[in-house]
Amino acid sequence: MKKQRREPIVLSQMRPITLFLVLSGCIVLTFAMIHLGSVTRFIRRIISALGPVFAGAVFAFLLAPAETLTEKRIAKWMAKPIEKHPRLKSFPRGISSFLVVLMFVGSIVLIVTVTFSQVVDGVSRALDRLPDYFDLVTEHIRRLFSADNSISQYLSQLSDKFSATELGMGKVDAVDITQKILSAAASGAAGTLGFLYDVIVGFVIAVYLLISRERFLKQWKQILYAVCKPKTASWIDNRFAIANQTFGTAVIGKLLDSVIIGMLCFIGCSVIRTPYSSLIAVIVGVTNLIPYFGPIFGAIPSVLLILMESPPKALYFFIFIIALQQFDANILDPRIVGKSIGLPAFWELFACLLGGGLFGVIGLIIGVPAFAVVYTLVKQLVSERLTDRVRDEELTPEFLRESLGVTEAIQESGLFSDSESDSPYIQHLILLEDIAQKPEERKEKP
C-alpha cells in the first residue's frame, strides 16, 4: 500500500490561531536577527540568572539513583510506622534526598580541603626547588655541549639572568604591580563568590527536585498531551525516555567508574608511598571522565609531580598507572558502562573531538553521552523507516538481509537489555530481524 501524497499547506486554509502564531513567529525571528547583539546579551543574562536552577538540575540528575536506593532502604526500615501513620509516607523521600545531598556536599568539601593543602604544599616546594632544577639542567647541557664555547657562554649568561639578584625587581613599578594584583584578586573573588552562590542554591534546588520529581514528570506529560496529539505526544515521550536512559547510563556509569579508579589510584600510591597521593588520586579520577585523552591528561602531570620529588617512585607510578588504565579500559569500564552507550569506537573519538572543540573540557566530558543520544535516536528512526518501507513493499526482505545487513546490525547493536524488549525501538528491530531471516513467513505486525 502506497502512502498518500500530502497536499501543500495554503495560508488561506489555516485556522486563525495557527496563522497568527506563524506570522508572530516570523516577526519575532526577524526582530531577533536585526537586533542579534541585544538578544544575545538578554539570553546570557537569563542563563546567568538561572545558573542555580541549572546547577540544581545537574545535581538532582546525578544523585537520583543514589536517592532512590536510599529511599527504598529507609522505606523498608520504616514499613511498620508508615502502616500505622500514613502521613509518614513521604518521610523516606524527604530524608533520603537530604542525606544524599549532604553526603555529596561533605565528600566535595573533604576532597577540596585535602587537595588544596597538597596543591599549596606542592607549588611552594616546586618554586623553592626551581632554581636548583634549572642549575642542574644547565649543568648537564653545559657538559653535553662543552666543546662548543658559544653555547656554554650563552648558558652561563642565561643562568646569571635567572638568579634573584639579576631579575631587576627594583626596576619594576611597585604601584603598577600592586594595582594589577588587587584587580586580579577582586575579579577572582567576585567570580568565586558567584560560583559558590550558584552551587549552594543549586544544592537546595536539587533537594526540591529530588523530592518532587514525580510531580514534575506528571506536569510535563500533562502539558505534552494537552498541546500535542496523543500519537505525537507518545512519540516525543518515548524519545525523551530513550535519551534519558542512554545519557543517564553513560554519565552516571562513567562517574562511578572514575570514583573507583580514583580510589584504586590512591591505594596504589599509598602502597608505593608516592608524594601527593591524595592530589594525584583526584587528578587521575577527574581526568578519567574524559574518554581516550583523560588517562593521558591525568598521567603526565602526576608523573611530573612525583619526578620532582623522587625519580625512582615516578617510574614505579608510571608502570602502575599504565596497568590501572588497562584494567579500567578492558575490565572495569565495560562492566559498569557496558554497551549501553551503543557507540562504535570511531564515533566515540569523533564525539570527543567535536565536543572538546566546541565546548572545551565540558564538551570532552559530555560529548560522548550527548552524541550517543543522537546516535540512538537516529538508529531508532532508521529502523522505523525501514520497517515502513518493507510494509509498503518498497524494499524486499532479501535486500535488507544481503545489502543492508539488518540482521547483523541488530545482533551487534547491544543497545538495550532483554528486560526492555517492550520498547517501540526493540519491537521495530525484532520485526526487521524476522523479515530479514524469514521472508517467506513474513507477516505484518501491529
Question: What does this protein structure show overall?
Answer:
This protein is mostly helical and 446 residues long. 80% of the residues lie in helices and 0% in strands. The chain has helices spanning 16-34, 36-49, 51-77, 79-84, 91-144, 149-162, 174-211, 213-227, 230-272, 277-287, 294-309, 311-336, 345-391, 397-402, 406-413, 424-437. The protein is globular, with a radius of gyration of 30 Å. Mean pLDDT is 76; it is low at 164-173, 407-426 and 438-446.
Short description:
This protein is mainly α. The protein has helices at 16-34, 36-49, 51-77, 79-84, 91-144, 149-162, 174-211, 213-227, 230-272, 277-287, 294-309, 311-336, 345-391, 397-402, 406-413, 424-437.
> How would you spell out the order of helices and strands?
HHHHHHHHHHHHHHHH
User: Ends: how far apart?
Assistant: 15 Å
**Uncertain residue ranges:** 164-173, 407-426, 438-446
| Beta strand % | under 5%
What does the overall shape look like?
Answer: globular
Helix-residue proportion: over 70%
Assembly status: single chain
